[in-house]
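Hi W., the magnesium ion complex you wanted:
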Amino acid sequence: MDGNGRWATSKGLKRTEGHREGAKAIDRLMDDAIEFGLKNISLYAFSTENWKRPVLEVKAIFDLLIEFINERLDNIHSKGICIQHSGSRKRIPSSALKSIDAAVAKTKKNKILTINFCLNYGSKDEILHAFNEAMKERKINRKDLSAPMKEREFEKYLYTYPLPAVDLLIRTAGEQRISNFLLWQIAYSEIFFTNTLWPDFNRDSLVDALKSYEHRVRKFGGL
Ligand code: IPE
Ligand code: MG
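Structure:
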């Protein structure tokens, strides 16, 4: 969800206002996704690298997230949306963890659409975490620690588990890079780059991305 800051700056507003407007884009996306029958959406909300930002911006992002979840939880639940969190819990403020955990617990049986908030998420961190957890589990169960790690064993420990591999990755705001997002899960994803800034991302933007996806021929390395 890139481009919140640029959206705000271009309008003479504070960057925080861009994040606030970005939250509205998530509202639209949730409704459109349900209508179009999408099953899983992962939103890159805060990366392990975003801690480099000024403390006030970091605080504003977490405050906004708490507000976002608390204000909408009943509505999200009534729509049948399941909230998931992917990322390290380590540096997330306890107030934010409280909101996330409550949302995850309340919506865990919902089946219409999963919204996976990637928060304090970094893919390298995820892969190392998964490997370490897998080894820990082997030790606990007295399994052979030197046995080769298979995909099926490893994937269970990814933050995103049990979500499937990504079909379509959308990167907004004109940047053409992955920025440590779901590196394992996008091995064979289709990628859609758009110049649209995240707060401007609307139903038409989603339709453009889906139409592009519709024309991709996915071969997964085969013929
Ligand atoms: C993305 O928007 C939102 C977060 C990382 C939380 P940015 O804040 O990166 O917006 P730009 O890139 O400065 O425009
Ligand atoms: Mg950015």
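Residues 2 surround magnesium ion (ligand 2) (CB under 6 Å).

W.
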